[in-house]
Amino acid sequence: MNNRAIFLFFIGFLLDSSAISSQTVDSIQYSRVYYNLSEALKEPEKVYRLNLSNQRFHSFPDSLFLLKKLEFLSLRNTHVKSIPSEIGGLKNLRVLDLGGNDFAILPDSFAELSKLEELFLDEDPNLALTKDFKVLEKLLSLKSLHLDHDGIRKFPGGIVNLKNLERLYLNDNNLHRIPLEINELQKLNYLEIRNNPIPQTKISKLQQRGITVKW
C-alpha cells in the first residue's frame, strides 16, 4: 500500500470513527431525561425529554416553549390551572402527560400538536370533555388516550372522531355502560375500563369484536 493509499485509509477511518462517536453521543443525549427546568434551559437545543412531575407551579411555565425539540413532557401533579395557547408551538411532542392537574379547557392551538401519539388527561377532575374533544379530534396522530379517574359518568359523543385511536384508558370512572360510540372506533384494539359499574354482558360484545378489554 503506497503512502497516498495509507493516508486515504487513515482519513476514512477517522471519519467513520467520528460518525460512530457522534451517533453514540446523539443517542445518549436523546435518551437523557431532564428533571429540572433550569438545567434544561441551559441547553434547550439538546432537550428531548423533560419530566417535571410533582413540581408545583403557580402557572404554566412559559419558558417551556423555548424547548422546541421536546418529544416527551410530563407535568403530572403540578396543579396547572390553565394550558396556554403557546403549547401549540411544541410541535415535536409525541408523549404529553398532563395528569393530576386543575385545568378544564384545552386551547384550540392544542390541535397543532400534529405528532402527538399519547396523551395523559387522567386525574383531571375539571375537564370539560365535550369542548376538549372538539380539539382532540384534530390530533390525527393520537393513538393512546388516558382518561382514568376523571369522574366520567357519560362519555361525550365526540370520541367517534378520534379515528386513529388504538388504546383507551377509562379506569376508575362512574360509567354504567360502554359508550356506544366506541363501536365506531375502527382502530381501537385495547380498552381498560376497570372499576366502573358495567355489566359483563356489555364487555363481552367488545371482546367479540377482537378488542382486548381489561375490567
Helices, by number, come to 4
Distance between the termini: 71 Å
| Strands in their spatial order, largest beta sheet | 1-2-3-4-5-6-7-8-9
Arithmetic mean pLDDT: 87
**H/E element order:** HEHEEEEHEEEHE
Helix content: 10-25%
Strand content: 5-15%
Which blocks of ≥5 consecutive residues have pLDDT under 50? 4-11, 17-22
Oligomer: single chain
Major sheet attributes: 9 strands, parallel
Features:
single chain, 215 residues, alpha/beta, 9-stranded parallel β-sheet, 4 helices, 24% helix
Descriptive account of the structure:
With 215 residues, this protein is of the alpha/beta class. It is built from 4 helices and 9 strands, in the order H-E-H-E-E-E-E-H-E-E-E-H-E. A 9-stranded parallel sheet has the order 1-2-3-4-5-6-7-8-9. It starts with a helix and ends with a strand.
Sequence-ordered SSE layout with sheet pairings:
Elements: H1 3-31, E1 33-34, H2 37-41, E2 49-51, E3 72-74, E4 95-97, E5 118-120, H3 129-136, E6 144-146, E7 167-169, E8 190-192, H4 200-208, E9 212-214
Parallel strand pairs: 1-2, 2-3, 3-4, 4-5, 5-6, 6-7, 7-8, 8-9
Summarize the structure.
With 215 residues, the chain is of the alpha/beta class. The protein has helices spanning 3-31, 37-41, 129-136, 200-208, and strands spanning 33-34, 49-51, 72-74, 95-97, 118-120, 144-146, 167-169, 190-192, 212-214. The protein has 4 helices and 9 strands; from the N terminus they run αβαββββαβββαβ.
